[in-house]
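Figure 2 data, in text form.
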Amino acid sequence: MDPKQGAVILGAAAVSYCLGSMPFGLWLTKLRHGMDVRAAGSNSTGATNVLRVAGPATAAATFACDAAKGYGAVELARSLGISPLGQTVCGVSAIAGHCWPVFAGFRGGKGVATGIGASVAVDPTMFLTGAALGIPVLGATKMVSLGSLTGAAGYVVYAAVKGSRTHRYAPLFYAAAAFGITTFRHRENIGRIFRGEERKLTFGKTSRSGRMDEHTDHGQAAAHLHDVHMPVHHRENH
C-alpha cells in the first residue's frame, strides 16, 4: 500500500471512530427527557435501551442517528477515494466508536444500528440479507439480541458467498469484523439465551414479572416497551 494512501485511511478511520463515538442516545434522552439513559434499564446508550427508557419517538431518532454514523463513515472514505477495504475499515471504526465512545466515557451501545448503516453503504444487498434473516427471528422470539446476532451472521454468509464468486473480499472483512464485535458485545445475552433467561419485548401493558428497573437520576423513566418472562435483576445491554 502506498504510504500516502495508508495515512489517508488511518486519518479517515480516526474520524470515523470519533463520528461513531457521538452518543446520540445519551444526548437525545437528556435533551428530551432530562435523564441519563445509562442510569436506567440496561445502562446502554443504544436504541433498544432508549426505547425502554424514553419511548419509541426518542428511540427512533436514536436509531436513525446511530445508523447515519455508520453510513457516513463509509461514504466519507468513499468520497476521499479510499479503496473498498479502507472503506470497510472506516465502517468498523464507526462501530467501535459507538460501542466504546470517547465522548461518553467508553460506555456505549452494541453497535447494531451503526453496523446497519455501515452495511447499507458497504453493500445494500448484504444488509437486505441480514435483515431478511434477523427480522423474522426477532419477530418470532421477541429477543432483540438474537435477531441482531442472526442478522450479523447473515452478513458473513452473504459476503463469503459473494466473495467466492467475485474474489472481492472487502465486504467479508467488514461482515466478519462487525459480527465479531456484535457477538462480543452480546456475550452476556448469549449466556442468558442458552439459560432460557433472555428478556423478551412486547408492546403494550406492563408485565408484573418483567418490569425493568425504572429508577434514573430523576427517579423514573417512561417504559413504553416492556420486558416479559424475566426477573428485574437480570440486565440486558442494547
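Caption note: Residues 3-228 form one domain.
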